[in-house]
Amino acid sequence: MSLRPLIVNALSKHTATVIMLHGLGDSGAGWVSLAENWRRRNKFDEVKFIFPNAPSIPITINGGFVMPGWYDITSFSDLNAVHDETGIMKSRTLLTSLVESEISEHKIPSERIIIGGFSQGGAISLFTGLTIKQKLAGIFGLSCYLVLHDRVPEYVKEANKVNQATPFFIAHGDADQVCQYEWGVETARVIEKDLGHKVEFKTYPGLPHSAAMEEIDDLEKWITKCLDAKPTGQGEASAGPSGT
C-alpha cells in the first residue's frame, strides 16, 4: 500500500484543510467516506480533506504482527503504560509536515487547518495539536486517549502554548472495549483542567470502538464552528518551521 495520503480536493476555492488520521490496522481509505458524505450534502466545499496512511510496523500487543500503525502498543490495560515515544514523535513529525505543506505550498493560513483522527490517529492528533508550533483552527480525537501524558507539559512549553485558545473536540462511546471510555474522560479532563484548553467532550451511550452518525453530525457542527470563527491574528506569525 502506498503511504501517499489520499486527498479529497475542495470543490470551490480552497480556503481550509482538514487532516484526518485513521486508527490501528486501517488506512486513509477507511475514512474517505467522511468527506464523501459531506460532499453529497454540499458541506465544506471550500475544504480540502487529507487522509494520511500510517506505515506498517510490528505491533507488540498483537504478537508482533505487522500492520498500519502510528506507533507501537505494548498494553491496553493501563492509560499510564509506557508509550512508544519514538514512533509517536515520528508520526507527530509527519502530521506537522502535512500542516506545514498546506501553509507553504497551498497558502492556507494555519488557523484554517484542523487536525484530528480516530483511535491511534486521534491520539497522535491530540498530542500534535498540543505541541505543534503553528496556531490551528481546531483539534479533534475520536475514541482515543492522550499519549506521553507525563511528557506533554514539557512539549507544550516548547511550543509556547500557541494553541491555548484552539478548540478541542473529544468524543467517546461508553461501551468502547478497546480504548476504555474512562481514558477518554480522563484525557478530556487533563487537556481542559490541567492544561487549560477549551474542550467539548461528547459521550455516546452504547457505542463500542467505532464511530456513529450522531458523532459525525456533532463533529460536523464543531468543524463548522471552528472554520466560522474569526482568526486571532496569530496564524501568519505561527506559520514558520516547527523545528520538529
From TrEMBL:
The yes or no answer to whether the keyword Nucleotide-binding is present is no
The protein's UniProt keywords, in alphabetical order, are:
Fatty acid metabolism, Hydrolase, Lipid metabolism, Serine esterase
Enzyme Commission numbers on file? 3.1.2.22
Q: Which residues form the Phospholipase/carboxylesterase/thioesterase domain?
A: 6-226
Q: Which InterPro entries match?
A: AB_hydrolase_fold, LYPA1-2/EST-like, PLipase/COase/thioEstase
Q: Which SUPFAM superfamilies match?
A: alpha/beta-Hydrolases (SSF53474)
Task of the protein:
Hydrolyzes fatty acids from S-acylated cysteine residues in proteins with a strong preference for palmitoylated G-alpha proteins over other acyl substrates. Mediates the deacylation of G-alpha proteins such as GPA1 in vivo, but has weak or no activity toward palmitoylated Ras proteins. Has weak lysophospholipase activity in vitro; however such activity may not exist in vivo.
What family is it from?
Belongs to the AB hydrolase superfamily. AB hydrolase 2 family.
Protein name stated in the entry: Acyl-protein thioesterase 1
Q: Which organism is this protein's natural source?
A: Lithohypha guttulata
